[in-house]
Amino acid sequence: MDMIFELRIYTIHEGKMEAIQKRFEQHTLGIFERLGMQVYDFWVDETGLPKLYYVMQYKNREERDRQWDAFRQDPEWIEVKRKSEQSGPIVAKIEEMMMKRAPFFRS
């Protein structure tokens, strides 16, 4: 079965990189795991730009949509987001790109 991948690029508000990394490390990744969401890999920008990059892996588009709907409605996530953004929003912009592996590439 061909998996699909989603590249997510988060542009972070100035001065909030530590806050977003802490939120992922202490809360978000655990919520993802509990909801069956699979993070394929995760990066911070090497040049110092306020950006995070990560790739999620799914069986199909329906699984992706179902998982993100569950995440957005998750009471733990709602509370974590509320508390972490008491001094203002952390994420300025989210870019989402859906991808599938090129048929000529074998890892």
From TrEMBL:
InterPro entries found in the cross-reference section: Dimeric_a/b-barrel, NIPSNAP
Ranges where the NIPSNAP domain occurs: 5-104
Q: Which domain of life is it from?
A: Bacteria
Stated name of the protein: NIPSNAP family protein
Q: Which organism is it from?
A: Paenibacillus rigui
Organism ancestry:
Bacteria, Bacillati, Bacillota, Bacilli, Bacillales
